[in-house]
């Protein structure tokens, strides 16, 4: 069992207050020990980042691109040791780990290696101006130029730790920023392991630092530090509010990707093929990382004419899923990240039953000796005002609600405080497109739950502030500066 240090200024640092245990969600065994960072150690990381940022911001973009490209290569080369560690600390199934955890992180570093070479100057047309008391008249030229923000604090979620961190670090470094990362406390070990990989790739010391801790104090120290210029956060809306409040005191820039309560709207014109697609899409709440994903379509809103058919299809789907050890290739549904999260999801299920909902499938703990498992659960007889239909559970639970017309479907879909990702299933793509305009959310999938990697990603309402993804990720980690001169 390895005890990790803090990664600060290009080297390991023994934590002053020792370590805490990182637990395998499937076996409940200790995977390794992560460092408990003090506020002073967080400050050391910020100091290192501030010292390194100026030189990096002035490097040739081709040099930044080469470092990010080499990082992608090295992650691939270290796959044999990283994959088992990542699976052990996240509890992700083999299918998810080998296709959507580490490979996706590699893709993001490669994408932003190209991004470092994207133009950062937007030329503006010359503009004739009249003489004023301040300046003579004439023809003025101008450009809008993207400049690095400075030091970025990246606070990441536990569901996809390395992917999420790569999606922040890669565009931030591509734009010439320095980073202090604070991974989720449940599974920070692979994020710590990125430190030596980036150093080997040629990243100068101080530009990537990782501090960890089992309590909120570590993140709070990072957010409140005056040397941090921006906070990029992925996690719950409740924590996001606290970060926004603290960051606002010093006018830090923020990028906030928060919670979701995705609605999958199945219209009455959905034929057999579309219905099958909708059932598979909603079933991904159970089969894709046990529903621990903010974009999951956890509410299925079905036209009353198809409601029973969809509920029956989802019931068959859920019962066919294999629950078990993530390292078993036949397993589809693995554990939740912790005992606390399992208990939280179970409490929501119990609350739904108390409010009059029906547990059509699941609702009981699987008969496994160890691990933080929740069985795939389908809840029917749900009304839009029930807690289980309004709050994010972050587990393998789907609620089904009928509707009678589009207006009612839109009202239900928009009735929560969230607005991250909704879906429309219809035989008429044009109709689905028109309906998408009425949904108060940052993303809409039409007959698919797949994501396009270049789209701007983020949410409306309490699902976040700002957008990343593709070139929009480069915009997120930069400030616009206007430069004006006499033509």
TrEMBL record:
<keyword id="KW-0560">Oxidoreductase</keyword>
<dbReference type="InterPro" id="IPR016161">
    <property type="entry name" value="Ald_DH/histidinol_DH"/>
</dbReference>
<dbReference type="Pfam" id="PF00171">
    <property type="entry name" value="Aldedh"/>
</dbReference>
<dbReference type="InterPro" id="IPR015590">
    <property type="entry name" value="Aldehyde_DH_dom"/>
</dbReference>
<protein>
    <submittedName>
        <fullName>Aldehyde dehydrogenase family protein</fullName>
    </submittedName>
</protein>
<feature type="domain" description="Aldehyde dehydrogenase">
    <location>
        <begin position="12"/>
        <end position="483"/>
    </location>
</feature>
<dbReference type="InterPro" id="IPR016162">
    <property type="entry name" value="Ald_DH_N"/>
</dbReference>
<dbReference type="InterPro" id="IPR016163">
    <property type="entry name" value="Ald_DH_C"/>
</dbReference>
